[in-house]
Amino acid sequence: MNGGAVNGGAVNGRRAAGPTYVGVDIGTSVIKAALFDGNGEQRALRTAPARVVNPREGWFEQDMDEVLAAVGEVVRALVDGQDGGAGDPPALLALTGQGDGVWLLDGEGRAVRPAVSWLDARAAGIADGWRADGTTEAVFRRTGGAMFPGCPAPVLAWFDRHEPDVLDRSVTAAYCKDMVMQRLTGVRATDTSDASLPFLDPVTRDYAPDVLEWCGLGHRADLLAPVAEPLPTGTLTAEGAALVGLPVGTPVSAGPFDLPACALGSGLAATSGDGHLIVGTTLACQVAVAELQPGGEPAGLTIPLGPDRWLRSMPAMVGTAALDWTLKLVGRTHDDVDPLLATGEPGAHGVRCLPYFSPAGERAPFVESGARARLDGLTVQTSTADVVRAVCEGIAFAARHCFEAAGLEGEVAVCGGGIRSREWLRLFADALGRPVRVSACPEVGAYGAVLAGIAATGLPVDTAAWARDRAADTTVVNPGEGPAKRYAEEYERYRAAVDRARTEWKERQV
After folding, report:
1. Smallest Cα–Cα separation from 429: which of 505, 488, 501?
2. Which of 11, 160, 378, 510 makes a 20 to 30 Å CA pair with 268?
């Protein structure tokens, strides 16, 4: 494993009565398993770290066996912790996880090589070339998804050009949750959410052969797993059962991937124009839309949610990772964030941040592989609190920029590790200039996977009653009139700075 212990504990002390359901969220840095009871209440959580390795500059990979072992570890710990494992086994194991990247598998669903993470930048040259020659534009107008270095198309094209033997030895170019699904159940499939970027036709909800040809990958089409609707489902094999400590035959579902799973778990309203924000490793901004009209600058992706309904998603490359780096730089911890933000004021005394810290650049609300972070306005009088606030403000402005591109009109539901900071949560409300709603469920990704899995497997569960019960427990944070006005002015300065920086990034790449 990763040298880290499985952590967790009961979310509340009451015993889970009746049927239970396990949701697993296979994140980039943390893998989590949450237990939900027959009323949809989260009862317990177990977590384990995930390891991303950096074998070369700009390359980010994960060991699939480590990821799989961590999934087994957290599920076993979760189930064993409930009455010593003596109760009835869960009625469902529902998977979600990180999207994008490429997880190359052989015919048995085992790793051909380490997984290429969505963070990876090795295919930046290919992505830049496609943007220059119009391929990205054509794909975006066709599918509603724009390509960036860590998405499957440029990564597969990179392997096809530089290491074709790796693809020749592979049977499936999978996504994270689908790799786990195949190892647990033997089912080789994906869902419409993961298939959305970039090969899925959002109308037919199947792969678009012309898009594969535009990317020079028509001869590799057999690497794409079948798209199962509403989700891939199966049952635990003997090998899978031994891994997670559940009975053979336990129902398993896979999907949607973490962005739409979190939106579902947060209770994103069906009303067109409502939004959802994930303040996690990525800063994901999503808006429910009723019309499929890929317009504007190519960026983000369009995820089918149901008949005549889609999720317009703008997943920026860096969210909490930018704050993590900043805290390490100034010698502080996450426990210091609230006190540091509480002592400052909007504008961070003139310190301003462009939060593009990923070495792969940015993918939303624009695609620029050369995008880089910037801190301006520093003097010898700049305090640690000013620097931390400037980064937090920059990330919040990036969210506003993404929401504007996605067409936000209504309310915003919010989740993710970043909102554990109450001050940062308030800052988001002020910077967005609208109320933000926090779900009462701590692990909305795992919860969304369970909701989707129950629907896909046909389990007789009244999830509508779960939603009604959950609605009464949500927290709404309203923007302050004064701070919201100040942030509206700061945001205009931020947008002007982004426009200037984009010109510089392009000139640097020439």
Report:
1. 488
2. 11
Q: Is beta strand 30-36 parallel, antiparallel or unpaired with respect to 103-105?
A: unpaired
pLDDT band of 309, cuts 50, 70, 90: confident
pLDDT in tens, 458-508: 999 999 888 877 776 778 999 999 999 999 999 999 999 999 999 999 877
Beta 412-415 vs 436-438: how paired, if at all? parallel
Q: Are residues 147 and 250 in the same domain?
A: no
Tell me the mean pLDDT in the region 261-280.
Answer: 86
Contact in structure between 47 and 6 (CB atoms under 8 Å):
yes
CB atoms within 10 A of CB 369: 24
CATH code of the domain containing 170? 3.30.420.40
Three-state SS at 392: helix
| pTM reported for the whole predicted model | 0.89
Give the chain's end-to-end CA distance (angstroms, integer): 43
Record the tokens describing residue 422, joined without a space: 């109450």
208-220 per-position pLDDT tens digit: 999 999 999 999 9
Q: 328 by DSSP, 3-state: which? A: helix
For residues 341 and 409, state if they share a domain. yes
Kindly report the number of other CB atoms within 10 A of residue 309's CB atom.
15
In this structure, the answer to whether residues 201 and 114 fall within a common structural domain is: yes
d(CA 217, CA 143) in angstroms, rounded, equals 16
Q: Is residue 280 part of a domain?
A: no
Nearest to 285 by CA among 297, 303, 308: 303
360 and 484 inside one domain = yes
Longest dimension (CA), the chain: 65
> In terms of DSSP H, where are the helices of 356-476?
384-406, 422-432, 444-457, 463-471
pLDDT at 370 exceeding the cut of 70 = yes
Domain that holds residue 143: 100-174+192-227
Three-state DSSP at 311 gives strand
